[in-house]
From TrEMBL:
Pfam families: DUF2514 (PF10721). Keywords: Coiled coil, Membrane, Transmembrane, Transmembrane helix. It comes from Pseudomonas amygdali pv. ulmi. InterPro entries: DUF2514. The chain crosses the membrane at residues 12-32. This is Chemotaxis protein. Residues 49-83 form a coiled coil.
């Protein structure tokens, strides 16, 4: 069949139609591949947001636990400080009495031992509070690094 059988200019409009169809298919292919890429990026972003939320939730729980323990240790420290104050008063009262007898001297020794034990316990509490603070700061740095990594991965 000859293209001129359909009338004059048939070859031109057939060629133009073919070119338009080819261009349309190429555009559709490009559009659909771009849409698939966008969906993949959105899915990756959703996964990253979920992971960040999980990390933030675990960090919040760890922080609550550390704060509760720090509060408990602060309470114990305050109780020990009050006990030390009472013991110091008793030691001062017993110092004069210690000169009168060995029994008072023994009481002063017991109070001195209690004072040294309470001081050691206060040191342990301070070490724990320091380690809880360090863990909290490390967790904050981890979340900050993860956030900056996620933000830098976005186009």
């Amino acid at each position: 069949m000859d293209p001129t059988d359909l009338g004059p200019g048939t070859a031109t409009w057939l060629g133009g139609t073919g070119t338009i169809l080819l261009g349309g298919f190429l555009w559709l292919r490009r559009f659909l591949s771009k849409d698939a890429t966008d969906r993949a990026m959105d899915n990756a972003d959703i996964g990253t947001v979920r992971r960040l939320n999980e990390l933030l939730d675990s960090e919040r729980l760890a922080r609550k636990d550390a704060e509760a323990r720090a509060d408990q240790f602060a309470k114990e420290r305050n109780e020990l400080a009050a006990a030390v104050g009472r013991m110091e008063g008793k030691i001062e009262a017993l110092t004069g009495a210690a000169q009168r007898g060995k029994a008072a001297n023994r009481a002063a020794m017991v109070l001195s031992e209690l004072l040294s034990r309470s001081d050691a316990r206060a040191g342990e509490l301070a070490k724990y509070a320091d380690s809880a603070r360090i863990a909290g700061l490390a967790c904050n740095r981890f979340v900050d690094e993860l956030s900056s990594t996620t933000n830098s991965a976005r186009p």
